[in-house]
Structure formats: structure tokens, C-alpha cells
């Protein structure tokens, strides 16, 4: 998380870094889901949904920004 001490109403920024050992010629989906309740999925919210790709072999990095939960 880029700013771990932000306010609840601020956007959430994730600095994501991962290693890919085999090239992925298609897109992969990254989602940020806020779990509003451990027992009821009705309260879950998708805060961000992005496609990244194609993915090259090696270290890959991007920043994913998500809106705050409602």
C-alpha cells in the first residue's frame, strides 16, 4: 500500500510487483475487493478491476488505484 496511514475516504494505491517466469500473451485481471462482512457477501464491494498484459518474463510492476469503499 502506497499510503498506509490515509483516511478511510481516500483512494487506495497498491504498488504491485511480481515475477513472471513464463510469458503470458493474454491479459490477467486484478481486482481489489472490500470485504464488508465476513458472513454476508452482499456487503462486498469491488473497488477496482483492471486488465494487465501481455506480461513479459521477469519482474513486473504497476500501481493500482482503487476508490474507497462506499
Residues in helix, %: under 10%
DSSP helical segment count: 0
Give the N-terminus to C-terminus distance in angstroms.
Answer: 19 Å
Structural class: mainly beta
Low-confidence stretches: none
Main sheet specs: 2 strands, antiparallel
Q: Say what oligomer this is.
A: single chain
Radius of gyration: 14 Å
Walkthrough of the structure:
- A two-stranded antiparallel ribbon has the order 1-4. A two-stranded antiparallel ribbon has the order 2-3.
- It has strands spanning 12-20, 28-34, 45-52, 58-66.
- 0% of the residues lie in helices and 47% in strands.
- It has 70 residues and is mostly beta strands.
Outline the secondary-structure elements.
Elements: E1 12-20, E2 28-34, E3 45-52, E4 58-66
Antiparallel strand pairs: 1-4, 2-3
Short overview:
This protein has 70 residues and is mostly beta strands. It contains no helices and four strands. Helix content is 0%, strand content 47%.
Properties at a glance:
single chain; 70 residues; mainly beta; two-stranded antiparallel sheet; two-stranded antiparallel ribbon; 4 strands; 47% strand; globular
Amino acid at each position: 500500500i502506497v499510503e498506509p496511514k490515509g483516511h478511510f475516504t481516500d483512494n487506495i494505491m497498491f504498488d504491485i510487483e511480481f515475477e513472471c517466469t513464463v510469458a503470458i500473451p493474454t491479459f490477467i485481471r486484478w481486482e481489489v475487493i472490500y470485504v464488508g462482512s465476513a458472513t454476508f457477501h452482499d456487503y462486498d464491494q469491488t473497488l477496482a478491476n483492471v486488465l494487465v498484459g501481455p506480461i513479459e518474463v521477469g519482474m513486473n510492476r504497476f500501481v493500482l488505484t482503487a476508490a474507497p469503499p462506499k
